[in-house]
Design goal:
This protein is mostly beta strands. It has 3 domains: 48-251, Glycosyl hydrolase domain, family 43 (Tachylectin-2, Chain A, 5 Propeller), CATH 2.115.10.20; 344-480, Galactose-binding domain-like (Jelly Rolls, Sandwich); 493-572, Sandwich (Immunoglobulin-like). The protein is 3% helix and 42% strand. Strand 39 and strand 40 form a beta hairpin.
């Protein structure tokens, strides 16, 4: 009887704890930027960085390599990640590439002055690697290793605003080149708007053509490349296609095939394309902040598909909203979106204190390049948000900004502790997530709730900062607002510039209740693969077109209640 009473008491206590803390212990969704323990750089200014990613699936698990990370990341589900450290690899060299060949992983990274080394391991979890080639003869930046179905090995490389991307076959035994490298991709900014420099391709300087990556699908070779520069919001990927690994290559019809110039965090360039253990394709990409330093960057993960005609498509619509991580083979991106909408955009915010240059409104403006900062990093600094109506909350993303930090590298005290609460009246608060004892580095902490919670207010209270002030680039809330989705955008005006066909001006009537719009466009009515998402405006200039193609456009409207897709498709000749 005593054991039964004890069990009932423990069960009751557990039930109370669950009721007070409804955050999920098992997460099935993610939200870009990926919530990794991005390393602080070793030089000034103090900032985090990861970029130029390579992801490989090896023995049913995932390994992610990125520039300047002080190690590489491992996951079994693409949701939860741990860091593997090693002294065997040149991890301070940029743009690592990894490929599986004959049951082992081969690694190399950028180095301009030959010789350089190629490494291999059959057990990447161990962190133990050995030298496979001690004197690779080509100095270069942004390498890519690719193994064809017949076992032959190819090498692609290049990073320049002058020179092209090159390719050459390698001997699988010596890992040295066979023959002379051939030029495979050169820029054409006159006709390809996405190659022009600037956040919105508006500057037009010669682009940096870089970040080659090869994918083979149904007998075709898809050679991907990045441009116009890693510091721009327009940083994206184009793709050329051939029936041979060394070309000649022809520009694909759908370009840029990975592009995200707007949203909370922009950029989808210098990437790698891989298949998960269910056969789904993914594109892991570099995303830009570039405020404290040009190379202040993060990583994003986007679903990728090949359509019936072999067009390669990376789906970036609502690319920094939550999406489900599949546990099976899927047929399209619509299977991934849980329909949790953004509830926090420009909502009223109250704070314990603020710095004059970093006001509270920046925590809700959907721009990672701005941030709110409290005056101190002390325990007890707080921020609260009024969603202005009772909503069903499904997920929260807490994006820290490293304001006034002096941290270098990885240190054991780099973590955030906080209490996240919710309320219906702003007076009585309940615990949403208690991380006051957290010891994990989560700079873009993402909390998925086990079930929706009804609330109008949320409040985040600081308990520990590793250094600097308590500062947020975004306190983002997702769920359902409980109202109506906006009306359809039925009228759209398009004007292509006569002297520059890479540029189009768009306008449409303001839709009551809409907070933003997603422009979908493409080269045929049934292939509106491009996405260009904006908030709070009905006037947009897109400068990333192919001057030699015609396009079709439509506009979707969205708010905190849902998305209303446009059905009127307008031709742009």
């Amino acid at each position: 009887m005593k054991k039964l009473r004890l069990f009932l008491l423990l069960f009751a206590l557990a039930s109370v704890c669950i009721a007070q803390n409804p955050s999920s212990s098992t997460t099935s969704t993610i939200c870009n930027p990926i919530n990794l323990s991005y390393r602080f750089c070793l030089d000034a200014p103090s900032r985090r960085e990861a970029a130029d990613p390579t992801m490989v699936t090896f023995k049913g698990e995932y390994y992610l390599f990125a520039s300047k990370s002080g190690g590489y990341f491992h996951s079994t589900d693409l949701i939860n990640w741990d860091l593997i450290t090693t002294n065997d690899l040149p991890l301070e060299d940029y743009a690592p590439t990894v490929v599986e060949m004959k049951g082992e992983l081969y690694f190399m990274a950028s180095k301009n002055d030959p010789p350089l080394k190629i490494y291999k391991t059959a057990d990447p979890k161990s962190g133990k690697w050995e030298v496979a080639n001690a004197a690779f003869p080509i100095g270069m930046t942004d390498p890519d290793l690719f193994v064809d179905d017949d076992g032959r090995l190819y090498f692609y490389y290049g990073c320049s605003n002058v020179n092209p991307i090159y390719a050459v076959e390698l001997d699988t035994k010596t890992l040295n080149p066979i023959g002379k490298p051939v030029a495979v991709i050169s820029s054409d900014k006159k006709n390809y708007g996405w190659e022009r420099s600037g956040d919105y391709n508006e500057v037009g300087n010669d682009p940096w053509i870089e970040g080659a990556w090869m994918t083979k699908q149904d007998g075709k070779f898809y050679l991907q490349y990045a441009g116009p520069g890693t510091e721009f919001k327009s940083y994206g990927d184009g793709v050329y296609v051939s029936d041979k690994p060394l070309g000649p290559f022809k520009l694909a019809t759908h370009n840029p095939f990975s592009y995200k110039p707007e949203g909370f965090i922009a950029g989808a360039g210098h990437s790698s394309t891989f298949q998960d253990k269910y056969g789904n394709y993914w594109h892991v990409a570099t995303m830009s902040i570039s405020v404290k330093h040009m190379f202040e960057r993060r990583l994003g993960l986007f679903p990728t598909f090949f359509d019936k005609d072999g067009e390669m498509v990376t789906y970036t619509a609502f690319g920094d909203f939550p999406f489900k991580m599949p546990t099976k083979k899927i047929s399209g991106p619509e299977e991934l979106f849980p329909n949790w909408m953004l509830l926090s955009y420009n909502k009223p915010v109250e704070v314990s204190s603020e710095l004059a240059d970093h006001p509270k409104k920046y925590a809700a403006d959907e721009e990672i390049r701005t941030f709110w900062s409290a005056k101190t990093g002390n325990k007890g600094e707080w921020i609260s948000m009024d969603l202005q109506t009772e909503c069903a909350l499904n997920a929260i993303q807490i994006n820290y900004a490293e304001n006034e930090t002096k941290i270098r590298g990885r240190q054991p005290n780099i973590y955030y502790q906080y209490l996240l609460e919710y309320s219906s009246d702003g007076k009585i608060w309940k615990t949403l997530t208690d991380k006051t004892q957290n010891k994990t580095d989560v700079p873009h902490d993402y909390i998925e709730l086990a079930k929706p919670v009804k609330a109008r207010y949320i409040k985040l209270t600081n308990y520990h900062m590793a250094d600097g002030t308590f500062a947020l680039a975004g306190l983002r809330v997702f769920g359902k607002g409980g109202g109506k989705s906006p009306s359809e955008v039925k009228s759209l005006s398009l004007k292509r510039q006569e002297n520059d066909r890479c540029i189009v001006n768009l306008s449409w009537p303001k839709i009551p209740g809409a907070i933003g719009y997603n422009i979908r466009y493409g080269t045929s009515k049934d292939k509106l693969y491009q996405n260009y998402q904006v908030l709070g405006t009905e006037l947009v200039t897109i400068r990333s077109l192919n001057a030699q193609q015609k396009y079709y456009f439509t506009v979707d409207a969205f708010n905190g209640n849902g998305i209303t897709k446009g059905t009127s498709i307008i031709e742009l000749k």
